[in-house]
């Protein structure tokens, strides 16, 4: 079976609807067709300051949500990044293959430092994408399910993998981003010109999966639309409604054309009310299931320990081959 690998940050506590539609749903599908590795990326999280107790708690919350969304530890490998030391080890090697200018062109870093200034950025934030390169290459992943905002990091991974293979001989599988066109970018409910994101969205613009469902329903109902009344998919002229149609369509498996037909002549009110109901229906059992996993941390930690063991078996092999290729003397 071909491999897939993906990661998600634990920092916000709750995942948001963009995470779910853009990435998690693809994790679920791929666990049945691929040898799938999914992790909570706590090493990436500390590229910006974290409260230690919160980080530890949120890492469990993230793992519980992955399980609640339907990932099955018998069908995929689920683990915490810091439990597999090979990530940091391979990242060092990859740092030494990455150009300074190349890393400087990563748009996420440029956006973040544009906002907060270069002085407050850590070197870890700068090399964040290189750690991601190591994440992907360690598992010889051929596909990387992510949202559109991660495309550039997967492209960087391809470049570095090709560079390594060219210099040291065939070692790494060249990975491709696995991005679903319809849901690769879910937009902010209050500003459909920007993506839904924990750093840029206002509280009203973002649906947190662990929020009280009533709160999320309200956010759907007050989502920014346009001055027309027609429920029609048109990303340019009607970005707000188009975003809601995408969400509705993906959560229910109904095509957008069918939804347009259903809501013909009904206006935005009915459409939003029913979408709010759909969301509440989906999110309610998700929250309950997350709480159940969190109520039994011993079982949760056991799942993660097993996952780390499976991950290390693969990662250790790749790291050993890489160390050998670059010319490190084996420790005997
Ligand atoms: P993170 O934690 O920011 O986001 C997790 C996943 O959610 C996707 N996503 C979205 N998709 C659609 N619409 C949105 N509005 C939206 N917001 C977020 C992201 O694209 C991502 O797939 N650097 C990564 C984590 C990572 C990783 C990896 C991913 C670390 N190592 C290796 C893949 C492979 C990140 O910060 O994702």
Automatic annotation (TrEMBL):
L-tryptophan binds at residue 135. Gene3D superfamilies: HUPs, Tyrosyl-Transfer RNA Synthetase. It catalyses: tRNA(Trp) + L-tryptophan + ATP = L-tryptophyl-tRNA(Trp) + AMP + diphosphate + H(+). GO terms for molecular function: tryptophan-tRNA ligase activity. A motif ('KMSKS' region) lies at residues 195-199. InterPro entries: aa-tRNA-synth_I_CS, aa-tRNA-synth_Ic, Rossmann-like_a/b/a_fold, Trp-tRNA-ligase, Trp-tRNA-ligase_bac-type, Trp-tRNA_synthetase. It is an enzyme of class 6 (ligase). Keywords: Aminoacyl-tRNA synthetase, ATP-binding, Cytoplasm, Ligase, Nucleotide-binding, Protein biosynthesis. It is found in: Cytoplasm. Its EC number is 6.1.1.2. ATP binds at residues 9-11, 18-19, 147-149, 186, 195-199. It holds the Pfam family tRNA-synt_1b. HAMAP family: Trp_tRNA_synth_B. Homodimer. Belongs to the class-I aminoacyl-tRNA synthetase family. Catalyzes the attachment of tryptophan to tRNA(Trp). PANTHER family: TRYPTOPHAN--TRNA LIGASE, MITOCHONDRIAL. This is Tryptophan--tRNA ligase. It comes from Streptomyces lonegramiae. The gene is trpS.
């Amino acid at each position: 079976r071909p491999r897939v690998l993906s990661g998600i940050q634990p920092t916000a506590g709750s995942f948001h609807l963009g995470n779910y539609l853009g990435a998690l749903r693809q994790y679920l599908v791929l666990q049945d067709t691929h040898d799938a590795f999914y992790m909570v990326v706590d090493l990436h999280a500390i590229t910006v300051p974290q409260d230690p107790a919160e980080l530890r708690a949120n890492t469990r919350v993230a793992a519980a949500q992955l399980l609640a969304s339907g990932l099955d530890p018998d069908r995929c490998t689920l683990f915490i990044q810091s439990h597999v030391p090979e990530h940091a080890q391979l990242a060092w090697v990859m740092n030494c293959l990455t150009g300074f200018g190349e890393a400087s062109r990563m748009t996420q870093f440029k956006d973040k430092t544009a906002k907060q200034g270069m002085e407050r950025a850590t070197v870890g934030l700068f090399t964040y994408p290189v750690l991601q390169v190591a994440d992907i290459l360690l598992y010889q992943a051929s596909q990387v399910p992510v949202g559109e905002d991660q495309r550039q990091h997967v492209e960087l991974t391809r470049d570095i993998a090709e560079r390594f293979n060219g210099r040291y001989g065939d070692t790494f599988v060249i990975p491709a981003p696995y991005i679903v066109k319809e849901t690769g970018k879910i937009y902010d409910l209050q500003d459909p010109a920007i993506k839904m994101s924990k750093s840029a969205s206002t509280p009203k613009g973002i649906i947190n999966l662990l929020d009280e469902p009533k709160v999320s329903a309200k956010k759907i109902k007050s989502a920014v639309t346009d001055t027309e009344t027609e429920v029609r998919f048109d990303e340019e002229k009607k970005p707000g409604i188009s975003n809601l149609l995408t969400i509705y369509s993906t959560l229910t498996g109904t095509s957008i054309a069918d939804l347009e037909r259903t809501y013909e002549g009904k206006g935005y009110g009915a459409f939003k009310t029913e979408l709010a109901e759909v969301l509440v229906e989906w999110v309610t059992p998700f929250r309950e299931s997350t709480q159940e996993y969190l109520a039994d941390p011993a079982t949760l930690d056991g799942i993660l320990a097993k996952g780390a063991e499976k991950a290390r078996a693969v990662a250790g092999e790749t790291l050993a081959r890489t160390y050998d290729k670059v010319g490190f003397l084996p420790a005997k």
